[in-house]
Amino acid sequence: MQEVTRHFRAMNTDVRVAILAGDPREANRYIDQVEALFADTEGRLSRFLPESELSALNAAAGRPFQASAMLFEVVHAAVEAARMTDGIFDPTVLPSLIAAGYDRSFELLGEQPAGRAAGWRGSWRDIRLDPSARTITIPQGCALDLGGIGKGWAVDRAVELLSDWVSFGVDAGGDLYVGGRRYDRPWRIGVADPRFPGRDLLQLQLEDRAVATSSVIRRRWVRGGEVMHHIIDPRTGNPASSRVIAATVVADSVAQAEVLAKAAIILGEEQGLRLIEGVGAGGLLVLANNDYVMSTTLQGMTYA
After folding, report:
1. Does the reported pTM lie above 0.85?
2. In angstroms, rounded to a whole number, what is the distance separating the alpha carbons of residues 44 and 55?
3. Are the CB atoms for 75 and 136 separated by under 8 Å?
């Protein structure tokens, strides 16, 4: 048995796939499918591609839009995530993101001029999904951003493609899933210190679990002399301002972990941990004072 790995770029992040296999050629055929899945997901769900299906949905605001199975499933998942978090996770924050200066792919951002007020963005509660016709209707003036949950969804679908293998991992820029055991031991996953690249706060021992990390440290830019970041608090329309600067969540699916991590940064440590523990997930929240807090549900998964 050997570990067959591949790295590729998709959804504006580095993706790594690993399979413990006796037949490397067969493993690579499966990894080909995973790479194609990520390319298709980016082509459909990227808000930065004017030809994407998501861009077409946003342009059709106010009218029913005939969606692909993928777009319908991800928008449905986003609405359910908004419902689970009572709107703290909100897929309709795109106008606020653009108003904050995040109006193009992150690597193209420079210093932005002083901000402008976000236009009316509607409400996730007003999104209408018709499963029988497979149509999505978003309110006029509304626009969706599916970046984080879309990446999590792609990893979760990759896990389904790889489920025939007894040991595998898929990592999309820190949003990852590990299946089975790695050489008869749990997979060891480092939780990076957001303030010191290359240093881990601790490591996790995991089998058949998903992990996602969100941070206000990495995706930052300057707008009108003010430092901004990409995690918008839907209650204010501005970047979140809690004491939590990074959140790592262990859950059943990557999409769920991604949603919970972003919600915890917006809510702060007390409400964030309460939300994470309330759905049976585990979380580690890094605070602005260089400390961190951990849920009781995570403690049994860590080692020094």
Report:
1. yes
2. 9
3. yes
pLDDT tens figures, 197-238: 889 999 999 999 999 999 988 766 565 556 666 789 999 888
Which sign, positive or negative, has the C-alpha torsion 212, 216, 217, 218?
Answer: positive
**Hey, CA dihedral for 203, 209, 215, 220, is it positive or negative?**
positive
Write the pLDDT tens digit of every residue in 31-50: 999 999 999 999 999 998 99
Nearest to 15 by CA among 224, 170, 130, 239: 170
Task: Please check whether residue 12 is in contact with residue 104, taking contact to mean a CB–CB distance below 8 angstroms.
Answer: no
What the block records as the tokens of 302 is: 């860590």
* Residues forming beta bridges with residue 236, ordered by sequence position: none
Question: In whole angstroms, what is the distance from residue 264 CA to residue 240 CA?
Answer: 10
What does the H/E/C string look like for the chain? Answer: CEEEEEEEEECCEEEEEEEEECCHHHHHHHHHHHHHHHHHHHHHHCCCCCCCHHHHHHHCCCCCEECCHHHHHHHHHHHHHHHHCCCCCCCCCHHHHHHCCCCCCHHHCCCECCCCCCCCCCCHHHCEEECCCCEEECCCCCCCCCHHHHHHHHHHHHHHHCCCCCCEEEEECCEEEEECCECCECEEEEEECCCCCCCEEEEEEECCEEEEEEECCCCEEEECCEEEECCEECCCCEECCCCEEEEEEEECCHHHHHHHHHHHHHHCHHHHHHHHHHCCCEEEEEECCCCEEECHHHHCCEEC
Q: What is the distance between the terminal CA atoms of the chain, rounded to a whole angstrom? A: 28
Are the C-beta atoms of 46 and 52 separated by less than 8 Å? Answer: yes
Look up residue 263 and give its two tokens: 């919600």
Residues 147-185: pLDDT tens digits? 899 999 999 999 999 999 999 999 999 999 999 999 989
* Residue that has been written with the tokens 């769920």 in this structure: 256
C-beta of residue 38 within 8 angstroms of C-beta of residue 8: yes
Tokens standing for 147? 């970046």
